[in-house]
Design brief:
It comes from Nocardioides eburneiflavus. The chain has about 650 residues and is of the alpha/beta class. The protein is about 30% helix and about 25% strand. It has a domain at about 525-645: ANL, C-terminal domain (GMP Synthetase, Chain A, domain 3), CATH 3.30.300.30. The chain is built from 21 helices and 30 strands. The strands form nine sheets. The protein has a seven-stranded mixed beta sheet, with helices on both faces. Bound molecules: ligand 6R9.
Length: about 650
């Protein structure tokens, strides 16, 4: 990687020391790194002791057949017992597990651990009644309502792996996932609320079920919006069953079975670069150990915290850090049904006295765009810790998040991980690490990461390359559902014994890690490696720019050329006539002439998935004047039309 491209982010020299009181009382202190280094398996064995096991394991890790790992071999446990029953038994039944906030104002519910236990038990009994047995797969396609968590835990209780499909996905996407994991039961709702209106879900399920032939036997439907839907009840020989009919009357007593530590917990589909989505398989003991430990360590979770992860449950962050991690830790959390409306989040922080907020850079940049007057109007003094996940956080957004949302007193933990890793892998520890804006810092205790070159040689401090993981970790994916070969090929075949994450990264002079985006997003312009992130970060540091996305478009002369799409801040108006030239110059100044975008398009929106990732693939299609590809995973598929109309007016 060229010196020039590394210099921009690395010249970021602001440091934020951990607050003294947090450091003094931190769950995890500096010594944890050494302890984990000296005996990694003992370290994870100790972390596993945080859970309740039926039978204790005989062996922490079996890595005799890499890359197929087995963690806590011989141990048995039940994930739902760990997430609910044991807290009730410990006398915390009255503690609120979920403060649920619906999108319509004043539509709220507080659910205690005791209530959650009853509800999960009822749902487990109802699913049994519908014929769900240990090992059967259940598809879940729901909005952000408490029943989605209940449904997941009920499946876990039975040992029936769930596959949650994000509610914004199309009927086709749902059908392909149902087919791939052969689910006989789908749990859904009539609809959900989005941007102030009821939006139907059940019709997509009907369509998907239709496409999958006779596979699906039952569709269990929660009534959320009360809107009109087609109904094919069992009386008429159909598949549909109302949740309130099946679950509400079921017994709240359910004797849980202890499952093998390696019993499948869930399959989560994530898109690969091409072809059919990959079904990432997570199992029980290691996954629960990895998520609960990291949730406790990275967020420094205390008994009286009010934690809020804003991710949708249809995304891995919603699985690890809304469902399993926090519930295994007996935390009180907020769950919000809606999307980021102006001011609404801050109202929620104020109302529920949220202490820990975990969100994505894209949301932060949206709020930056709206202006600080909005959050400034709320009392957010309850906050003590902020987290970021999903993409590299540019220094501007980090500092804004820290200052405006965190009142300049809350540490920001930038957490790097993937659907595949299951748990946070690289992150500051809030009581230990002095944060650098834009850096995820260091592998957590018990995790071993490095940055290597094409020949798997460690690049050393001050250099860039590929991020790899060197040792197995508890919540790692076990395989791709039904496709061991693709699992090996995708992650383990590039270099012997190393997990290839697909991300570019660099080590600064202190050895701290800076993520540079997917390696497929790393451009090569005239033989210079340029990171999309780095140029985006430079663009966003311009006062008129709210958000930016950069792609490398094929170019006859330079191999690839930098093409940028920018959203201007509301205060910048249309940016003025010379805005494009002004921004090109700005990038040249920030990074160097080589990084100057060939083309900059001012656009009203960027195409994003519901988990907030910019779909650069689509922008690349625009930049290379191709027909725009598959838009079904976009949160809002009309965005591409807006961008294409702009294309005509591009310079
Ligand atoms: C949890 C999640 C994984 C990809 C990953 C990387 C990017 C996630 C990041 C980050 C820089 C962070 N990513 N967190 N990049 N800094 N803190 O997002 O899972 O949806 O599977 O995405 O997201 O590129 O490889 P997933």
């Amino acid at each position: 990687m060229s010196e020039q491209t590394l210099s921009n982010l690395m010249s970021e020299d602001r440091r934020f020391e951990p607050p003294a009181d947090l450091a003094a009382d931190a769950n995890v202190k500096e010594e944890a790194y050494d302890r984990a280094d000296s005996d990694r398996e003992a370290f994870w064995g100790e972390a596993a002791e945080r859970l309740d096991w039926g039978q204790k394991w005989d062996q922490v890790l079996d890595w005799s057949n890499p890359p197929f790992a087995k963690w806590f071999v011989g141990g048995t446990l039940n994930a739902s017992v760990n997430c609910v029953d044991r807290h009730v038994e410990a006398g915390n039944g009255d503690k609120v597990a979920i403060h649920w906030v619906g999108e319509p104002h004043d539509d709220t519910r507080d659910i205690t651990y005791a209530q959650l236990k009853d509800e999960v038990s009822r749902a487990a009994n109802a699913l049994t009644e519908l014929g769900v047995r240990k090992g059967d797969r259940v598809a879940i396609y729901m909005p952000m309502i408490p029943e989605v968590v209940v449904a997941m835990l009920a499946c876990a209780r039975l040992g029936a792996p769930h596959t949650v499909v994000f509610g914004g996905f199309s009927a086709d996407a749902l059908a392909s996932r149902i087919t791939d994991c052969e689910a006989h039961v789908v749990i859904t709702s009539d609809g959900g609320y989005r941007r102030g209106a009821a939006s139907a879900l059940k019709p997509a399920v009907d369509e998907a079920v239709e496409k999958t032939g006779d596979l699906v036997r039952h569709v269990l439907v929660v009534r959320r919006t009360g809107q009109d839907i087609e109904w094919n009840g069992r009386e008429e020989g159909g598949r549909d069953v109302w949740w309130h009919d099946a679950v509400d009357g079921a017994s709240a007593e359910h004797e849980p079975e202890m499952h093998d530590s390696e019993h499948p917990l869930y399959v989560m589909y994530t898109s690969g670069t091409t072809g059919k989505p990959k079904g990432i398989l997570h199992t029980t003991g290691g996954y629960l150990t990895g998520t609960s430990y990291t949730h406790w360590a990275v967020f420094d979770l205390k008994d009286d915290d009010v934690y809020w992860c804003t991710a949708d449950v249809g995304w891995v962050t919603g699985h690890s850090y809304m469902a399993y991690g926090p519930l295994a830790n007996g935390a009180t959390q907020v769950m919000y049904e809606g999307t980021p409306e102006k001011g609404r989040w801050w109202q929620i922080v104020q109302d529920y006295k949220v202490t820990i907020l975990y969100t994505a850079p894209t949301a932060i940049r949206t709020f930056m765009k709206q202006g600080r007057e909005i959050p400034d109007g709320y009392d957010m003094s309850s906050l003590r810790l902020l987290g970021s996940v999903g993409e590299p956080i540019n220094p501007e957004a980090y500092v804004w998040y820290r200052e405006v949302i965190g009142g300049d007193r809350c540490p920001v933990v930038d957490t790097w991980w993937q659907t595949e890793t299951g748990q946070i892998m690289i992150s500051p520890l809030p009581g230990v690490t002095a944060g650098k804006p834009g850096s995820a810092m260091k592998a957590l205790p018990g995790i071993s990461a490095d940055v290597v070159d094409d020949d798997a040689k460690p690049v050393g401090n001050g250099n860039g390359g590929y991020l790899v993981l060197k040792e197995p970790w508890p919540a790692m994916l076990r395989t791709l559902w039904g496709d061991d070969q693709r699992f090996k090929d995708t992650y383990w075949s590039r270099w012997e014994g190393l997990y290839f994450a697909g991300d570019g990264a660099k080590l600064d002079d202190d050895g701290d890690i800076w993520l540079l985006g997917r390696v497929d997003d790393v451009m090569n312009v005239s033989g210079h490696r340029l990171s999309t992130t780095e140029i985006e970060s430079a663009l966003v540091s311009h006062p008129k720019v709210a958000e930016a996305a950069v792609v490398g478009a094929a170019d006859e002369t330079t191999g690839q050329a930098v093409c940028a799409f920018v959203i201007l801040r509301d205060s910048a108006g249309d940016g003025g006539e010379d805005i494009v030239e002004e921004l090109r110059k700005h990038v040249a100044k920030e990074i160097g002439a080589i990084a100057k975008p060939r083309q900059i398009m001012v656009v009203p929106e960027l195409p994003k998935t519901r988990s907030g990732k910019i779909m650069r693939r689509l922008l690349k299609d625009v930049a290379e004047h191709r027909e725009v590809g598959d838009v079904t995973t976009l949160a809002d598929s009309t965005v591409m039309d807006l961008i294409k109309t702009k294309e005509g007016s591009a310079p």
